[in-house]
Design goal:
Layout: E1 2-5, E2 8-11, E3 25-32, E4 35-41, E5 50-59, E6 65-70, E7 75-77, E8 85-94, E9 108-109, H1 143-156, H2 158-163
Antiparallel strand pairs: 1-2, 3-4, 4-7, 5-6, 5-8, 8-9
């Protein structure tokens, strides 16, 4: 097929333009202390290279989801709670977008002998054990909110609030 324009004649390319990714396949998951290691096989990239993968693990029976990005397999998902059950899936990303998710894994229980178990909300952490390096501390006092409000008021200015 040919296309004609004021610049000449060109031939239309009749090849495939589908550059979407095919979902990765999970090969194995190894539970550990506060983590799961997800081994997967990449799906077909259809000519548009994959530049990252995301392993997502969802708590079974709890509202918790942890995403970890990586360039290759395996990806270790950290900051998981011991003795909790998780199911995982993997997606790939290229310049076109994100692939469909892999099939969800069988449920896995996280745990190990040298583990950190997060304390109940509002109590200080125990003196033994350390959280995973990517853990974010949770505020244990309502004073943090007062500090944020004071900072915002100083940015906005007391005059503007008084005018309202």
């Amino acid at each position: 097929m040919f296309a004609h324009s004021g610049y000449g004649t060109s031939r239309r390319w009749s090849g495939s333009t589908d550059r979407t990714l095919v979902a990765p396949t999970i090969d194995s998951i190894t539970p550990g202390a506060g983590q799961l290691t997800v081994v997967f096989t990449p799906g077909t990239d259809n000519g548009s290279p994959t530049y990252s993968y995301r392993a997502s693990c969802l708590g079974v029976g709890v509202l918790r989801r942890v995403n970890v990005d990586g360039a290759t397999s395996p990806i270790t998902v950290t900051s998981l709670y011991n003795d909790d059950t998780y199911e995982c899936f993997v997606t790939a990303t290229n310049i076109i977008g994100m692939s469909p998710a892999s099939a969800t894994s069988e449920p896995f229980v996280v745990g190990g002998p040298d583990t950190f178990v997060p304390p109940p909300y509002g109590t200080p952490p125990p003196s033994t054990g350390t959280p995973p390096s990517s853990a974010t501390p949770v505020p244990t006092s309502p004073l943090w909110l007062l500090g944020i409000m004071a900072g915002l008021l100083s940015l906005v200015g007391f005059r503007k609030l008084r005018k309202a």
